[in-house]
Structure formats: structure tokens, C-alpha cells
Amino acid sequence: MDFKRTDFPEGFLFGAATAAYQIEGHGFGGAGPTHWDTFAATPGNVIRAEDGTLACDHYHRFAEDLDLLKNAGMDAYRFSTSWARVMPDGQTINPEGLDFYDRLVDAMLERGLKPFQTLYHWELPSALADKGGWTNRDTTHYFGDFTDTITDRIGDRVHAIATINEPWCVSFLSHFLGHHAPGLRDIRATARAMHHINLAHGIAMSRLRDKGMTNCGVVLNFDHTSPADTSPKAAEAANLQDAIINRWFIEAIAKGTYPQEVLDGFCDHMPDGWQDDMAQISQPIDWLGVNYYTRHQMAADPGAPWPAMKTVPGHLATTQMDWEIYPAGLHHFLTRMAQDYVGDLPLYVTENGMAWDDRVENGAVHDPERTQFVSDHLLAAKQAIADGANVQGFFYWSLLDNYEWAFGYEKRFGIVHVDFETLKRTPKASYHALKRAIAH
Ligand code: IFM
Q1: 386 CB contacts (<8 Å, ≥6 apart)?
Q2: Which DSSP state fits 112?
């Protein structure tokens, strides 16, 4: 790595991130069925129809996994608490689920790791999916109740709480592009989900504040967007893509408005009275999480219905996901968030990482590409700090190879290799490199 801990401000946190459904093993501990289970069970949605029933068996092996964080010298762990584990039908409490998170948080504290909790990282209980999921406004209130329940149990010990992970994925990717559960391709469902997920954030924030919780934020994903050529049409496409993925959520949360060009596309598909929710959505947050992976170059797609645009493949090196590697994009979003939306509010890079076709050879995993990737992105974050962004931490995605949603177990993002036959964990060379870099 071309950086060391002391290159960053005092108190800067280094950590790694995971999410419940991707690692825990949802078949254990009384967790309820989720829309990801049914999405995966439907042919053509997920590679080999794999699901999160066993995943990394973190449910039973969490002590070993937390030791990996501690032994790397990490300061914090970003994890999520599964709604369907705590409330299998979305409403009824499963005591075993609460007990699990109680043990998990205590185990983090015993190891000196700051718990960064995420309330929703995508495992919507099937019983709520049956009622329309995020297209149904009622889901936002059930989410508020889940927020109360889990906070009553572990809120006294978590260091930071994020309401939603990547609302664009929850809404646009899942209801317009159909790539994630529930796999819809419907503009009206999309408009509703894109508003309701923001409202769910706002309702959860209110519930957290009612309990006196501090250090509450939200985690948004950003995708660097530029025109594929010099034509005005490509510029228009890039602007629209930027509005949909990069501005819709932060503008609502920081300013209480939505980008007009997206509202124009949604026409009358927005739920009635959405304007009345904007005050609740835009209440103050304590920090913003920035997830960043790649860039896209956009061109017009004439003749296609709104948004009438397409992605044009770029020329940069790519990861196992075919995502272009573009560290300057991280600097762009950290400085842009500070300048245009949140000022001096703490920013965390809550996810950044790359998938690679890693193999264990002679007991080791050689992944110099990942070491370079992490190094380059941390240097971009360091430059953003020098340019005025109040960045206070970096979480590598992910601690473990895990369930990569529609890609099943094929794409490996971890700094720790997981053999999905034996579940053996093998720290990769990048894990050791990160450990050395943050040791001093
Ligand atoms: O694995 C996902 C994670 O659940 C959310 N952010 C992006 C990661 C890599 O695709």
C-alpha cells in the first residue's frame, strides 16, 4: 500500500464492511423468508439460483470473523441487522434474532471494534413483499417499528447507525432495471419505491431521534458519470443518469427536493402527496456514508422510452464485475458532497473494493490487483481531505468473499477468501498489506 495510517487525520477509522444476508446464513436462528429467497428461486435471476441460506455461516462463525478484523488492526466493523431475522414476517419479534445481534455487538466491543450498524441492507421479509414491498407506503412504517425494536436491544452499544444501504439499488436497480429483488421493470413501481425508500429513511431517523440516538446517517452509492462523446445528447444522458443515481437521494435528504429532470420522467407515477413527506426526509443527519466503486460513460438511446440512454463501455482496466477502475471518482464524490450538499458533516467511505477471481494456491491468495485498488482509492480519499472534505473513515467492501446477490458466490470481493465448500477463511495478500499499512 502506498499510504500509512499516519497519513490520515488523528482518529480516522479503518474498517471493513459486510451485510447480514450476504454472510450470516439466513437458514439459521429463525430468520424469515425474504424477497431475495424467492428472487433467487426463480430461474434466470441469480447465477446457479444460489441464495443466502448458508452464505459464510457467519451466524456460527462470527467470533472467528471478528478476530480477523481485530488481528488486522481495524478500528471499526460495518455490519447490518437483518429485518427478517429480527422480525421474520416483518412485524413479529423473533427473540433468537435479537439475541444474535446482542451477542454480535458485545463480541465487537470485546475486541475493541466500533460497531457501525446498517438497519436495511436489502433482506425485505417476504410477508411485506407480498403486500407490495417498497411500492407500498405502509412498509415505511413497519420499517420504523423494526428500527424501534432493534434499537431498544442494541442501540446502547452501537457507535453509529445508518438507516438504509444504497437506496438506488433498493429502488431503481430493483424496480426499473430488474437486476435485484423483487426484479420488477416498471416505472410506476420505481417512482414509488424511490420515494418510499427515502421516506423510510426519514421515518427511521425520527424513531432514532425519539430514542435520543446520535451518530445516525445514511449510506448512498455513487457512480461517476460522464458523457461518452462530445454531443449535447450524450451530455444530456450523463446529466440524467447523474440525477437518477447520484442526486435523487442526497438532494432529498440534504435539501428536501428532487431533481426536476427525474420528476419529469416519472410524470404522474409519484405517490399522491409526496411533497408533504419532504420535510421528514430532509431532517438533519449526523454523517453521510459514500459507497463508491466505478464510473459509467453515457450516450443517448434515441427511440427508447425515458430515460432514453445507454452505457458505452470504457477503456480503463476492469474488475471481475467488469467495473472500470477509476479512483478519481471517489475524490470527485467526497469533495462534491462536501461542497454541494453536506458541508463539514463527517463523511465515511462506507464501501469501496473490488471483485477478483481469487484462488488459494499453497495456502495463500495472491491479489496484487486488490492491494493496488485499495491503495489508489485511499490516496484519492486522502486528497479529498486535503481539498476540504471531512472524511473520517474508510471501510473496505468486503471483509469476506460472500453472496454477491444476482452473481451468487461467483464474484469475490473479500480481503479474506472463503472456500464455500469447507467455509475455511484464508486472509488474502491484500489483507496482510492493509494490516501493515494501518499498523503505523
Ligand atoms: O455486495 C454489494 C453490497 O451489498 C452493496 N454495495 C455493493 C457491493 C458490491 O456489489
Answers
A1: none
A2: T
pLDDT score recorded for residue 440: 83
Closest residue to atom 4 of ligand 1, CA basis: 19
Q: Hey, what's the cell of 177? A: 432495471
Task: Identify any residues that bridge with 309 across adjacent strands, giving them in sequence order.
Answer: 300
**Residue 166 a catalytic site member:** yes
First to last CA, the chain: 12
Spatial separation of the C-alpha atoms in residues 91 and 127, rounded to whole Å:
9
Q: Is 166 in the pocket of ligand 1 (CB under 6 A)?
A: yes
Q: Quick check: 97 and 82 in contact, CB under 8 A?
A: yes
Query: Are β-strands 13-17 and 391-397 bridged in parallel, bridged antiparallel, or unpaired?
Result: parallel
Give the ligand 1 atom nearest the CA of 291: 6
Q: Which of 168, 323, 351, 399 to mutate to test the pocket of ligand 1 (most atoms within 8 A of CB)?
A: 351
pLDDT one-digit tens code per residue, 283-340:
999 999 999 999 999 999 999 999 999 999 999 999 999 999 999 999 999 999 999 9
404 CB near ligand 1 (under 6 Å): yes
> 403 CA to middle of ligand 1, Å?
9
**Ligand 1 site, residue 223, Cβ cutoff 6 A:** no
> Pairing between strand 425-427 and 160-165?
unpaired
Pocket of ligand 1 contains residue 291 by CB under 6 Å: yes
Backbone angles phi, psi at 24, to 5 degrees: -70, -45
Has 351 been annotated as catalytic? yes
What pLDDT, in 10s, does the model give residues 167-207? Answer: 999 999 999 999 999 999 999 999 999 999 999 999 999 99
